[in-house]
Write a structure and sequence with these properties.
eight-stranded parallel β-barrel, homotetramer, TIM Barrel
């Protein structure tokens, strides 16, 4: 039997990172962040690698978080996934001893070191995060705290030097010491905020960090240094860092610790010929990351069982064609469409050219469920759609896709939309509008129509029959044949 | 001081005609209507004058009116303007005596004749209308009953013969007898339903009846007989009919009696050169109709003061260029754009090519207010927009336009959106989607996102700050430069 | 074996009517033509039935025919099909006796009556036509003279009255007398110009005369009077008129006499389901007209063998769906696409929305060839394409389609492009640009690129390998998915 | 007086590089070229920096040059600018002594060293170039030989290492030794081919080499290493290399030696506010390069007078806005439009998004003429337009722009279109179609319509009145508002 309602304890909410939303007022600068340096780098701007938009002109969550929370509350949202910025909490390097031990892989993470670290934290930033998170809690919104959403403090990462091929200790994930340092930082967050969250995530989309930073370098992600080898090294350090962080955090909390991952759904150009490619792509893109964490991987020194839950970010699919033993991802589909037109499959595309493909979310969820049987959250899903033309359809049809997965047995515990309010979309700057809510030049929030649609869904915990028609591909107008 | 709230007694609601919405079930046929005959005429269909869509496949308000009313109630609507169909109430001709007297212009409309007429009414239809209107009343929705919204009974009108140039008594508004017959019918409605309505309208958009029926005959309106002379004759008969109906109705009711009119806002192509054209066009399009009714016109035998209120229907503007003493209306603007693209002014167009021009509504209201100082309702305003892409903007920006007029002093008492539910758009059939609500193959209603937006406005009696951003021209996407 | 060259005696040329091209200078007015009256009629203009463009602002062939001919000569063209205007040659009615006899169906067409008629002809117009045609001859361009290309003299046709349903003798093809009058006029042309032409055509697209004049009345063709019955009557009179004209003309000339017909190629929406519809549509559209002329039809009094050749006009296809015993032609294909976009089949459309479908020309030719084995000319083929974007492809791919038919055995003797120079496209006025050549405000001719392409083909009598790539559907650009 | 004809000795022709056109057959590989290595680099392909198209699948000029030349001859072309590939002539390093001397800046270029070098040249390649150029000469087509069109031999350049920040001697233009080596190579070409050419160019668009290679690295040009400092160093070495090459070449030949440069025309967003930006941009983009060569520059050791002529490559403009003391180039104009739509100025864009802006060519020519009074050739001008929709307009309107400059006094001696045949457009691969001529899978050439237009112009040495209409912006269709 198909159920129309979501499970009673299912949570509708939103996802948000620190760097993309916090700044916007003079007193809220996060200039000790490597991403801050990166997007201000003149050569990066001149070359078009980054937009030239400045994150300090953002929506200003750091100051006006209450208006964000109030809007979410009015929208009936019950969960938020928010990131904390390492560079805010520790704008200066960890003490030398810790740095040295981490370098030697001899750091022990325990209460002593955590209370030691507490002396070095930026107290104002720490208290401000706690204030923000308390405000969330007081509104009966459950919080998932995410430790890492791409920026690192400048004392760990100098992406401009890496981009230039200059040797530097501050090479971010390329320097092995980060494994222990990250675990320490994550543990410290739990140590200070254990009561504020219902769950923790170590990282958001770590696969994008090495994918865009070292392979798809036109994306303009730091360090834009093209190297499969470095990508691979970063991937390994990330796996180790999560594992160590997991173990350390679980010593302090019983709350579930997970990771949030960027997913696409692979479709074969020709189902008869290209199916092999799908299995291979899934293995490369997903299982090669999750199997070590869940099943263990000797070469990485990971003994498995390092995840209590999986966070699924999903935006669109990827079309594949088999190519020898491997595969090629085809232009004109998925993430590589042209803006505001249709793909070869007559699917509409978003303001940044991403294809409308809601069924992929169900299938991605089922892929994970069938392989791991772990609880899941949809931790990101949304569309760059300034006019809010497609978002009502996008929202309903992707949520309907989640419901179908639940009705097939998948344990999905929440759907967190990306994003509540328009924010800084990394190298693309402010032009992509992912928010259910926009903001004006005074940083007043205004609702897009889909915010009302989401409110209907969140409040009723179902897609009510009146909204069912939005579970479809948006009609293609004359100009969008 | 600009007020953000609408006056406390301001009503948000919707407008609806009989013929366009009632049918949809087997037991609800209205086949004694000349429009029914017209859209079934094989030659009309073959020629493309009419769509070939059949009104008997409509949304079925006659049967499922409660679901319409319930939706409106949920949407916070407080007023409805609904039409009654002469052909349903009197599928057979009025008694001979009445017909003969009307022909001689010697009919007296009084209680005797009304109670005589009562014997000939279709009791089932009458009671069903009363049942429908009571349901509206019971939901605390104010009702304006409109007597005439284009169809006539076949015993009065045979448009196919008129189209062919065949002489016939059944020539609708071309036969003078209709003046008294219409007044009688209208009075009868008041006689039977006085308590159900808060106001009455004699006619909806009479100017379209002769404009499309006798001038713009590509519109496919009956009788599609091209003749300025006939257009003029119909106009005069309509003016006389309204006047006589007004006098007759006011003998029975104190409630305000008005008329509903199709308006456009005239803009000059070159403000320096073409301004004369505007005054002339306004005079031709509006004042030549309203002045006789309000100020009187000896040649028509109308002594003025025949309106208690004015109903303003507005969809888009008309661009004019001076041409000699007259003017030319320009293609590529207003009603004559191409579907789903932009006009030369970079304004977006709707699914049927109408231009987005909200400021025109304010100006049209002010035109009327400055000239007549009569109370007004916006009795129609809406957009054909299946995807609901522009409607949220259309809705908010037109309602904001009304508010600006109110803040300038105009006495506007309500805004009635066209329409609540998708319906039969005359010769165009079902393809234009004007509804806040659509319906599926089981005639279940589904809400478009803008229905939620309208609910916000109607419920709060203002355009709340969160929605202000929708008071703008919809963003033009890549494809819609 | 497939031949790449056209037969040695194959002619490339162009087609042109009188009314559409002749006017353009003050001394060249053709105001005794019913089409002249029709397009000047204020009600027609006001209603949008006609464009408001005035044919007297045309390209001015009457005066500057030499520049037309010179361009054609430079282009390597060897054949022209040109129309003469009855209203120019006989602006006043034929003598009473002739009118009376024609009414009684008792007119005898012989040398006596032709020499009698010679007294009434407008000598200036006659001599001017002869002058024009001699100039063509002197340039070694073969001429086909066409007698009737839609306009009639006003003394035979008052379409405005017919449109109004007013009884009139001047009802054009509805008045039976036209059968003999037309035969007389056609014979007179042969009588005076036999030596100037290589072949004669009685009529151009007679099927459009009744199809658009009495059925598809939104096309704005005179008399825009909707009546299947009248359409049928006109069709019969046209068939009789051609037959009588054929017999009369052949008494004077041995040169081949044919008729030029408007064709479309019918394609089934679903080849498995809709094939019956194709046969029926072909029968209705083509065989019901040609069978009587070729095989005879007792009820019409036609004994067959009335055609020496068939002129095929082809622009695009028509998509059909079976509907009961009949069929429906589908919107969004063929003639009913939207301008400058693509159809559902991803075929591009022209400036007036016609679909690119070159293969249809081959199939239409083969249809005729298989049924009648008569010689054929392609007498019209072209595209409204102001930018000349698709015309190079259109030209080559349609000419290639003709070549395929020839290689299959069809006897096609020439290809005449519509048109050499932009002209007056009837109710649409000047906006559709069908010319290989345009003209500026001084009526100077300028070549579009496809004129150079046509020159290559005409000069070499083949589609040279260098041009083969143009035998394809034009590439769909980003905006034209 | 405005002349309509071009000067009698004006040459219409085409431009072509080696790397982009030569390959296409197995025996024609140029795999010792750094660009060959670059576009085959797996990381480059995977990252999307390069297209993945392989130059060895090109049009194959090396083998079928005669079909190119024959087409040009048929088109009436009288001049060609062709590049030679260093890597073909010297696939192996120059002898050690030469390398060492160049490193020490102590190389003397004289007949001895040239005859010494002759021992090391690839004789087959040398003879083949001579054979090709003789074929050009025999067809009465004047030849300009260009020495450098971006690729370097791999023994001089390892762009993948440079991209990675790895120190290498093979750093191309970053290694100072190239100054003397380039001068030697250029002199050697003159030494061997002096009689085959009417003029020589040292380099094609050297400004793109450092602009795209070190600044706009998303373009995917080698080495895609972002560094203003390196860009500046390369610029200086290029200036020195040209100067030395000029002096060395002029010792061997009297024929004019020039340089070919990539130009854009700068337009101010707001002519009242942004004019300062134009002067500054012109200085940065043009005068900072040409002034040292022509007027001399002590710091570079250049004493001026190093150019006999200037080659102007022009495709579109650049829109600027003043920004502080500098300027910003605006997106949505010039080179940064979206494909196949219009810019904010309603100018159409090409298949790769470049804006149609013909007037810029005239102005750029006049800029040079007014400053330097040197003879000029337009050495590149063309459009990526697979459908050949805009190219007829582009061709005529840019050639008309050249004519206007000539009529104002500029000494422009020829117009060389880019390109004759579609070729390999560097990192973009084969998808941009710049050819007047395309080719099929058998490398047969097919003409686009504009080839016929160009033939008209080249043959008549003027834009004949019949083609004047093409001197305009292409009409914007429905879809291209």
């Amino acid at each position: 039997m198909v159920e129309n309602n979501f499970p009673e304890d299912f949570k509708f909410g939103w996802s948000q990172s620190g760097f993309q939303s916090e700044m916007g007022y003079d007193n809220a600068m996060d200039d000790k962040s490597d991403w801050y340096v990166w997007v201000h780098d003149k050569e990066n701007i001149q070359s078009g690698l980054v937009s030239g938009d400045m994150p300090e002109n953002g929506p200003g969550y750091w100051n006006n978080y209450k208006s964000f929370h109030e809007a979410a509350q009015n929208m009936g949202l019950k969960m938020a996934r928010i990131g904390v910025e390492w560079s805010r909490l520790f704008p200066e390097p960890f003490p030398e001893k810790i740095m040295a031990d981490a370098k030697n892989n001899s750091l022990e993470i325990n209460n002593n070191i955590l209370s030691e670290l507490d002396k070095y934290v930026n107290k104002d930033a720490l208290n401000h995060y706690i204030e923000i998170f308390n405000d969330i809690k007081n509104r009966n919104i459950d919080l998932i705290i995410n430790m890492y959403h791409w920026p690192l403090p400048v004392w760990l990462s100098d992406p401009v030097s890496v981009r230039k091929g200059i040797k530097t200790e501050r090479s971010g994930w390329l320097n092995d010491r980060i494994v222990q340092l990250f675990a320490l930082f994550s543990s410290y967050i739990v140590y200070k905020m254990e009561d504020l969250a219902v769950a923790f995530s170590t990282m958001n989309e770590p696969n994008v960090v090495y994918g865009n930073g070292f392979i798809n370098i036109k994306s303009g992600f730091p360090p834009s240094y093209l190297s499969s080898e470095f990508a691979s090294k970063v991937k390994n350090n990330i796996l180790k860092a999560h594992s160590l962080a997991y173990d350390s955090m679980k010593k302090i909390t019983d709350k579930p610790v997970g990771i949030i991952y960027a997913n696409t759904y692979f479709t074969p150009l020709d189902p008869e010929k290209d199916n092999d490619a799908i299995a291979k792509a899934d293995s490369d893109a997903k299982w090669s990351f999750f199997d070590p964490l869940i099943k263990g991987d000797k070469s990485l020194g990971i003994n498995g069982n390092k995840l209590d839950w999986i966070g699924i970010n999903y935006y669109t699919r990827t079309m594949l064609r088999k190519d020898g033993d491997g595969y090629i991802s085809l232009k004109g589909y998925g993430h590589s469409g042209s803006p505001n037109t249709v793909t070869n499959d007559k699917r509409p595309t978003s303001d940044i050219g991403w294809e409308f493909y809601p069924e992929g979310l169900e299938y991605v969820i089922m892929n994970y469920w069938n392989r791991y049987k772990l609880p899941m959250y949809v931790t990101e899903n949304g569309i760059a759609d300034n006019g809010d033309y497609q978002r009502p359809y996008y929202l309903v049809s992707h949520i309907a896709s989640v419901l179908r997965a639940i009705n097939k047995g998948a344990n999905v515990k929440g759907y967190l939309h990306w994003s509540l309010v328009d924010n800084y979309e990394w190298a693309l700057g402010f032009s992509p509008k992912f928010g259910l809510i926009g903001y004006d030049e005074n940083k007043k929030l205004y609702w897009r129509p889909s915010a009302l649609v989401y409110k209907e869904i969140a409040t009723k915990n179902c897609i009510s029959p009146e909204l069912k028609h939005l579970d479809s591909i948006p009609p293609i107008n004359g100009l969008r044949k």
